[in-house]
């Protein structure tokens, strides 16, 4: 089992990367813990996180709420220092492992991981995918690596038309892609705006 958690909302800060978790963000993470308890009664034993402050704080809340062990900081999940090879190495090791893992990671790395795990690497014509997956803070994403499917659980607001719904596999255009085999490296192309 693999669970991804988008950290809670950060405090307003000029550099969002270095912002601490806000009071709202703490509430979002506590709600995510409640959802995890209900959906995944036997939580993963391993918890890894990005080194950014709000991710570290979110991971610590989850660790305490779910009675998990220590938190492992993974530099490959840091948006400021991540090299393509480091992130791909982390993903390959994760996919080769049988260890149930909870990963606390922010965007854009969260979006990249979700796209990778469902095999969503671009348009049929090979161009970069311009559809962004809006994943609100405090959202948990359950990943079935064998079936290449994901399920989103959130109580956040989603913009109309976003593919991030209660269960992404219910969307026909994503369902077919969600079942595709994915043996490629992460596609780190930035969606065009």
Secondary structure elements and pairings:
Blueprint: E1 2-5, H1 23-39, E2 46-49, H2 53-66, E3 71-73, H3 84-96, E4 101-104, H4 109-118, E5 140-144, E6 149-153, H5 172-178
Parallel strand pairs: 1-4, 2-3, 2-4
Antiparallel strand pairs: 1-5, 5-6
Provide a descriptive summary of the structure in words.
- Mean pLDDT is 74; it is low at 157-193.
- This protein has a single domain, classed as Rossmann fold, CATH 3.40.50.
- A six-stranded mixed sheet has the order 3-2-4-1-5-6, with helices on both faces.
- It contains five helices and six strands.
- Strand 2 (46-49), helix 2 and strand 3 form a beta-alpha-beta unit.
- Helix content is 32%, strand content 13%.
- Helix 1 (23-39) crosses helix 2 (53-66).
- By secondary structure, it is of the alpha/beta class.
- The protein is globular and about 35 Å long.
In the sheet with the most strands, the strands line up as: 3-2-4-1-5-6
Radius of gyration from CA coordinates:
16 Å
Biggest pleated sheet: 6 strands, mixed
Q: Tell me the fraction of residues in β-strands, as a range.
A: 5-15%
Give me the strand/helix succession. EHEHEHEHEEH
Q: Per CATH, which architecture?
A: 3-Layer(aba) Sandwich
Q: Give the terminus-to-terminus CA distance.
A: 34 Å
* CATH-level-4 superfamily name: Phosphoglycerate mutase-like
Instruction: Give the CATH class.
Output: Alpha Beta
Count of helical segments?
5
Number of distinct beta strands: 6
Q: What is the general shape?
A: globular
Category by helix and strand content: alpha/beta
User: What is CATH's topology name?
Assistant: Rossmann fold
Mean pLDDT value? 74
Unreliable residue runs: 157-193
What fraction, in percent, of the residue positions are helical?
A: 25-40%
The domain tally reads: 1
């Amino acid at each position: 089992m693999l669970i991804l958690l988008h950290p809670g909302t950060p405090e307003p800060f000029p550099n969002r990367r270095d912002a601490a978790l806000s009071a709202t963000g703490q509430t979002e993470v506590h709600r995510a813990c409640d959802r995890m308890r209900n959906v995944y009664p036997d939580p993963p034993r391993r918890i890894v996180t990005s080194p950014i402050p709000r991710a570290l704080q979110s991971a610590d809340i989850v660790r305490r709420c779910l009675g998990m062990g220590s938190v492992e900081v993974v530099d490959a999940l840091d948006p400021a220092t991540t090299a393509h090879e480091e992130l791909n190495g982390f993903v390959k090791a994760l996919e080769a492992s049988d260890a149930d893992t909870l990963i606390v990671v922010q965007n854009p790395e969260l979006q990249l991981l979700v796209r990778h795990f469902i095999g969503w690497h671009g348009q049929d014509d090979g161009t970069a995918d311009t559809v962004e997956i809006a994943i609100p803070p405090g959202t948990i994403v359950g990943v079935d690596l064998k079936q290449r499917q994901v399920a989103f659980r959130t109580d956040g607001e989603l913009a109309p038309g976003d593919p991030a719904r209660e269960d992404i596999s219910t969307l026909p255009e994503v369902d077919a892609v969600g079942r595709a085999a994915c043996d490629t490296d992460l596609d780190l192309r930035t969606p065009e705006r």
